[in-house]
Write a structure and sequence with these properties.
The complex is a heterodimer of chains A (152) and B (137).
Chain A lengths: L15 E6 L6 H13 L9 H18 L7 E9 L2 E7 L21 H9 L2 E5 L4 E7 L12
Antiparallel strand pairs in A: 1-2, 2-3, 3-5, 4-5
Chain B lengths: L6 E6 L2 E6 L4 E2 L4 H14 L4 E5 L5 E2 L1 H15 L4 E5 L3 H9 L8 E2 L2 H27 L1
Parallel strand pairs in B: 2-4, 3-5, 4-6, 6-7
Antiparallel strand pairs in B: 1-2
Helix pairs in contact in B: 1-2
Classes of the chains: A alpha+beta (152), B alpha/beta (137).
Chain lengths: 152, 137
């Protein structure tokens, strides 16, 4: 199974794109790079990257563990694209995909679903692209330029 | 030179205070070690009343929440407990978003937590005494 085709040429080229094997050890540098790219372009406050990092980590860990079953022969790809007032973050894996709407809201001590719950809360838009097998997270440009939802 | 423990534990009366010391970031990469530390305590000290101090922790991901829940369950099963303190604003928000603020007792600071936790244990002991008196009479 190949990783999803890159987004078509009618959309801007990614300003960040990286592929890495499906292991927790391999994910730190790509995440650091992604956060650096987001802060450099003003999508995330460099002094407060907490929620952006959280959403990226949750998405990547899900791709590694649930999507790719921690098989290091499979890869995860992260891409980030700017278009008008949105930054779109795509996290691809080589797994069977899932139905976002069927992920339950965590109820107290439930084992699953917290990662998606956090992403849904923090990102402006979240969806799953079943054709390309990627989680799609969107950040809307804020007028005060803070990026991912701040919790005032 | 030996490495600092991931969580260092010290006894304060009936309460075991655990300070997360070796990492300011708790994420998927070090969560296993964090979890092992907690579970080792839970196994070696059944019935322990544990207060975890997060004042050195600036970030944590949902993987950590599962470890906390596992340790919490293990301690509850032996009439112990796990309570938390000194969560920064962002980490507290993570607990609220995932409804875990309804599962864990969370104190503002470890000092405040020690006082209130100790007091709650004393009140529980008093309640048990009254129940025993009630049964006997």
């Amino acid at each position: 199974m190949t990783i999803g085709n890159r987004i078509d040429s009618s959309v801007s080229a990614p300003f960040y794109s990286i592929e890495f094997p499906s292991s927790i050890e391999a994910m730190r540098a790509p995440l650091d790079g992604a956060i650096a790219a987001l802060t450099a372009r003003g999508w995330v406050d460099k002094d407060h990257p907490f929620y952006a990092r959280l959403c990226l980590e949750e998405a990547v860990v899900n791709a590694i563990t649930h999507g790719n079953q921690c098989d290091e022969r499979r890869v995860v790809r992260v891409e980030m694209i700017e278009e008008n007032d949105f930054c779109t973050i795509l996290v691809y894996d080589q797994g069977p995909g899932f139905v976002l709407e069927q992920v339950p809201f965590p109820n107290g001590a439930a084992q699953r679903g917290r990662g998606i719950c956090l992403i849904r809360h923090c990102m402006d838009e979240v969806s799953y692209d079943t054709e390309r097998n990627c989680l799609v997270m969107k950040i809307r440009r804020k007028t005060h330029n803070k990026g991912v939802r701040d919790h005032e | 030179m030996s490495e600092k423990p991931f969580i260092s534990f010290e006894q304060h009366g009936s309460i075991t205070l655990g300070r997360v010391e070796r990492a300011t970031v708790l994420d998927a990469q070090n969560v296993a070690e964090f979890g092992r530390c907690l579970m080792t305590l839970a196994e070696q000290s059944p019935g322990a009343q544990v207060l975890l101090d997060f004042s050195q922790v600036g970030y944590l991901s949902s993987a950590v929440l599962n470890e906390l829940l596992g340790a919490h369950r293990a301690l509850l099963a032996t009439n112990g407990n796990l309570r938390l303190s000194s969560l920064n604003e962002d980490i507290l928000k993570v607990f609220e978003i995932t409804n875990l603020d309804k599962v864990f007792v969370i104190y503002d600071s470890w000092k405040d937590g020690l006082k209130k936790y100790q007091r709650s244990l004393e009140l529980e002991a008093q309640d048990r005494s009254w129940e025993e008196i009630g049964k006997d009479s």
